[in-house]
Amino acid sequence: MTGDRSASAPPSDEVDFVSGRTRVYGIVGDPIEQVRSPEMITAEFVRRGIDALMIPVHVRPADFDACLAQLKRVQNLDGLVFTIPYKRTAVALADDIGDHARTIGAINALARRPRGRWVGDIFDGMGCVEAFRRRGYAIRGQRLMLIGAGGAGAAIGIAMAHEHPRSMRLFDIDPQRAADLAVSIRTVDASIDVNVGEPVTTGIDILLNASPVGMLTDPRTPVDISAIEPQVIVFDAIVKPEPTKLLSLAQTRGCRTVFGREMMRGQISKIVDFFSAGATDAV
Questions:
Q1: Closest Cα to residue 216, out of 64, 53, 83, 39?
Q2: CA 90 to CA 72: how far, in whole Å?
Q3: How far, in Å, CA of 138 to CA of 210, rounded?
Q4: Distance in angstroms (rounded) separating the CA atoms of residues 197 and 150
Q5: pTM of the model
Q6: Using CA atoms in the order 198, 188, 255, 197, what is the torsion angle rounded to 10 degrees?
Q7: pLDDT of residue 57
Q8: Which CATH code of 3.40.50.10860, 3.30.1490.100, 3.40.190.10, 3.60.21.10 fits the domain covering 23-122+265-276?
Q9: C-alpha separations of 186 from 28, 168, 183, 256 in Å
Q10: CATH top-level class for 125-263?
Q11: What is the model's pLDDT at position 282?
Q12: Which strand (E) or helix (H) includes residue 208?
């Protein structure tokens, strides 16, 4: 009798993608189910031949300080990514931060450097701009509506400002946070018409959602787009569900859309570069 001999072969008692030499990275958030970094960053490690993997780490806000202080002591942990709600809180974990992070006051990546120093920076905004570039969608001279001015929103706002749009309207549930971002944007390009106010869907060219509204099973949308004009480009930073309700509704209106996964893809290479620069297990 012939057939597939592998069907009767005993299962292996080993896997080939992790060992005692594997370097470990984590993504920290609350919630954590929505993240794509474990799959995407690990895939980039594999593509580059780096023996490393990224794992999700669910930490409650009340446990953040104590948990992260101990995580940094794990000797084969070389870096961390931070998602909602920790991008601003995580700045305190870094011994030094990059220029973008310093302007924004938030980080989304923290890397171990020689002699146990930890360096942080933020890559959300650069990933968003790269997603638009890959689509061939211009930002210069456009009118932008940005919803959310937290860690990711601030990073997106600053990165977009470097592309010199005509105007930017900002909204956050914390008005002071939106006002602070407006000040930072003006330091990048004083010619941008920046204002803070409730979200609008008319008189704009690009709608950017950097708030958590619509994440996972949240049925809401951050703004009513029932009357949005079809020439508006709609971006949502959320990666799960895919597409989000906002993007699905935008597509029914005939709008072009940019997905959160595309922003993730745009920043993955930069994050792995950051992790790899001077990576060490020395303390």
A1: 83
A2: 12
A3: 19
A4: 15
A5: 0.78
A6: 0
A7: 98
A8: 3.40.50.10860
A9: 31, 10, 5, 28
A10: alpha beta
A11: 40
A12: strand 206-209
